[in-house]
Design goal:
With about 130 residues, the chain is an alpha+beta fold. The protein is about 20% helix and about 30% strand. The chain has 3 helices and 5 strands.
Length: about 130
């Protein structure tokens, strides 16, 4: 039998196709780990990718809920829109055109087809990715 990769083992494990120790994922210094380490050595971190300092937080706005998510478009850096998902689950998002609109509470309500759950949403290339609840 051919050896299967760690990714294949994880897929089988999470799909329920794997039982017992036959799909145990190695947590040691295996060859696959060594290959990843070699790749990292070939691609050193770029200066623009390293956080050099973190300053004091700037208070911009106080919101009603203590949980939720705010998002900006990660695929288009010039897109100034801001989306807010209030609370841990819901069916609507608030879309603000920019920071000024957010400060003035001037938004458009967007209704989703399905409920979102959690707070790990992201907007990328004009699409919202979220956990369908």
């Amino acid at each position: 039998a051919l050896p299967i990769s760690k990714a294949q083992q994880m897929t089988a494990l999470f799909n329920g196709k794997c039982k017992g120790e036959s799909c145990a994922v190695p947590n040691d210094d295996t060859m696959e780990t060594k290959e990843i380490t070699q790749v990292k050595k070939l691609h050193p971190k770029q200066a623009e990718c390293i956080i050099k300092s973190i300053g004091s937080p700037t208070h911009i706005l106080k919101v009603k809920y203590t949980v939720g998510a705010w998002m900006t478009e990660y695929g288009k850096i010039n897109d100034q829109r801001i989306w807010i998902a209030e609370h841990f689950s819901g069916l609507t998002l608030k879309q603000y055109d920019n920071l000024t609109a957010l400060l003035n509470d001037n938004y458009k309500t967007l209704k989703l087809r399905w409920f979102y759950h959690g707070c790990g949403h992201v907007v990328f290339n004009q699409s919202l990715y979220y956990h369908n609840g």
